[in-house]
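My current task is to audit a protein record that another person submitted. I have pasted the whole thing underneath without changing anything:
***
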Amino acid sequence: MRRACALVAIGVVLAGCTVGPDYKRPEATVPPEYRGLGPENPVGPASLAELPWWEIFGDPVLQGLIREAIQQNYDLRVAASRILQARAQVTIARSFQFPDLSGSGSAIYQRIEGDTLPAPTQITEAFQPSAGIDLSFEIDFWGRFRRASEAARADLLSSEAARRVVLSTLVTDVAITYFNLRDLDRELEISRDTLKSRIDSLKLVTMREKGGVAALIDVRQAEILVAQAGEAVPDTERLLAQTENALSVLLGRNPEDIPRGAELIKQITIPALPTGFPSSLLVRRPDVAQVEGQLAAATARIGVAKSDYFPRVFLTGSAAAAGLWVNSTWTGPQGLFAVGPSFTVPIFNSGRVGAGVDSAQAQAQIAADQYRLTVIQAFREVSDSLVEHRKRKEFRVQQEALATASRDASRLANMRYTGGVTSYLEVLDSERQLFDAELGVVRTYRDELIAIVRLYKALGGGWQE
């Protein structure tokens, strides 16, 4: 027993030798400030991403839809199950660092019937019960199992970050789809109002043509306006139904009607969109944390591969008790205790170990490059979102001016036509411009909201539970 304890103690001391590199976060070039900052993006430690999503999206209906999606969405459930799987893998990996004990037992009864050989020790009936415990322990001299446990823990952190990525994407997708839905609601309303107005105009032009005041070409041009507005209604209704179906899937439902809340213009009312310092982006972005976990796991697996270069030392032992009952005579009880080391040494394996190390190192290099690429893409997404929001806002101002001018031009064209100053062709052109301009205003409000959502996600927000 003392020798066995000494062997274990020596193994524990030597187990401090761990082969393979220790993980170190790669260097990443962080810009001093984001490109595309505007006056609505104050520079400072505060960031839009620090606000929870329920403070960004003020519509109670949208908040309810996002909460339902977080509870029911199947992509998020899959990500959560992967976390459970990764946690189990950590337990499995750590288990190899400890001795493996197993118990066994048997109770064999044997009886011989009929003629037997004439011998004084001939066994005709026997019963042999036994029970024991077996020990198996591989001493982790080179850190094989410690590196494997390290890799499993890194995979767990990566899977937890992956769930936050899915959650952030889910919140963003629900918000964007809902904004598209509210945009289509307004577009359908404009199309129906325009159709009703143009039908009234067609009646007026038809009466003028019958009275000899207008030409037949004016009637046909008025019918063109009615048809253009009329075809927009079913097309918008189609898009509405398909958008509701898409949102239903995000909510984990079968396709069905979706409730509505505030108008587009009242969805997000944040006066400023601060970005925070670029250095904090690497901490907030869950996708950066995900690839960093993958890099840490790949680095640890280099040590696992390198440990195959070295001998593997095992400690095995057993303890058992047994008895023997033969021809009505009992012998026992008997005891057995055995313990001892064994080892294996790699001699020739056709380069398999070296190839395994090369493969692990290549995988770690891939993960390092993926980490740097993810960081660069994160800064790009923030800059893209900043530029998109600022330019969407400027475009919306110009679109509103265009709609105002088109509305007045349409009014004047109708007055000129009624007064006999111009032909209906001028009315036709002005009505087309007005219809497109009014739809454009609604779409620019939607695009501006979507730009805010994308900026929020790019800064690392949206995954708060």
Observations:
- The longest strand covers residues 329-344.
